[in-house]
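R.M. (postdoc): so does anyone remember the format we settled on? I'll just put the structure tokens first.
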């Protein structure tokens, strides 16, 4: 179950959208000054290949 980020409903919605697109858990961690971190979780090389194929 994804963690709901309080005060950032747009971030949570984007995590859900990307998670559905890549069929895996996605986390966005906004930082200061417009920076942040995007984490896409995968559990095997095959799953990573599938994610990368959807990105290309």
């Amino acid at each position: 179950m994804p963690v709901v980020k309080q005060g950032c409903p747009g971030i949570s919605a984007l995590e859900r959208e990307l998670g559905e697109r890549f069929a895996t858990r996605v986390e966005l961690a906004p930082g200061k000054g417009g920076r942040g971190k995007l984490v896409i979780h995968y559990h095997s090389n095959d799953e990573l290949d599938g994610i990368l194929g959807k990105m290309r």
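R.M.: ...and that's the designed sequence above, right after the tokens. Also worth knowing: The chain has two helices and two strands. Helices lie at 9-22, 45-55.
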